Each structure stands twice: as C-alpha cells, then as structure tokens.
From TrEMBL:
InterPro entries on file: DBL_dom_sf (IPR035899), DH_dom (IPR000219), Ephexin-like (IPR047271), GDS_CDC24_CS (IPR001331), PH-like_dom_sf (IPR011993)
Protein name: ARHG5 factor
Highest taxon, organism lineage: Eukaryota
One GO-annotated biological process of the protein: intracellular signal transduction
Gene (name only): Arhgef5
Lineage of source species: Eukaryota, Metazoa, Chordata, Craniata, Vertebrata
Domain DH stretches: 1-76
One GO molecular-function entry: guanyl-nucleotide exchange factor activity
PROSITE patterns given in the database record: DH_1, DH_2
Protein source organism: Erythrocercus mccallii
Length: 150
C-alpha cells in the first residue's frame, strides 16, 4: 500500500484481459484451492477403488502424501500470519528501552485484548477511582501489558 508505483503496476496488470480481472490475491490463493480440490478428487477415487487392490494402495499413499502437504501448508500459513502480527505489533508499540525483541522465530501471539485498569487514589478523604484502558498481549513465552500513548 505504501508503494505507489507498485500499486499502479498492479492495477494495470489486474485490469488486463489476460488476468480476467482477477486480483493478485486470487492468484496467490489458487494453488491452495487446487490442493484442496485434489484431496476431494482422491477421496472420490478411493470410494470407487476395489478394497485391497493395488489401485487402492496407490490412491491411499497419494492421499496420505497430500494430507501431509496440506498440513504443512496450513502450518506455514499460520507461522506467516503469526510473524505478520508480530511485525504489526512491533510497529505499533514503543518501548522505553529496546531490550525486549518482540519479533522472534519461536514467539507467537496467543491472545490479545483490551481491559480497563482501575486506579484507587487513597490520598484523598474520599476514595476516588479512575479508569484507563490497558492492553494485554499474551505470547507463548511472555505476557506484555501496554497502554495507549497519551
């Protein structure tokens, strides 16, 4: 989004009749769609093969290999999403000191959300309660608390 030249080239390519007005995203998703269609095709082949035959053994091996490939693809997609979340979060969060590297190969964001912190001021004769929003970011190896910049 930040590169205007790339956006212009992408728009020109996507509007080309050869691309059939499909977006870049659809071309990136296409291989995954084909893999899932192959899985359905192999399931139908397995239904129609004679039990105990050589064809069934080969179709089962192909199906198992395809299942492993799909699992690996899904794991890699999840890893990339996790890395993208870490990059986005590291751009949004400012640390007072940069001793905590947020982006790490083994770190992934498990859960995040907003909470309301209650501050009790017991210096005054009446208890005064003030609230402020805080954000929790639970990673697989640590918990990060942050607050919006004032």
């Amino acid at each position: 989004n930040g590169n205007a030249g790339f956006q212009q080239v992408l728009e020109r390519l996507e509007s080309d009749p050869v691309c059939q007005r499909l977006s870049l995203k659809s071309f990136l998703i296409l291989p995954f769609q084909r893999i899932t269609r192959l899985k359905l095709l192999l399931q139908n082949i397995l239904k129609r093969t004679r039990p105990g035959s050589e064809e069934e053994v080969q179709a089962t091996q192909a199906y198992d290999a395809l299942e492993k490939l799909i699992k690996d693809c899904n794991e890699n997609v999840q890893r990339m999403k996790s890395t993208e979340e870490l990059i986005y979060l590291s751009q949004k969060i400012e640390f007072e000191c940069k001793i905590f590297p947020l982006i790490s190969q083994s770190r992934r964001l498990v859960k995040r959300g907003e909470l309301t912190a209650l501050d009790f001021n017991n210096l005054s004769p009446k208890w005064k309660v003030t609230t402020r929003p805080i954000y929790l970011h639970l990673f697989n190896d640590c918990l990060l608390l942050s607050r919006p910049k004032e």
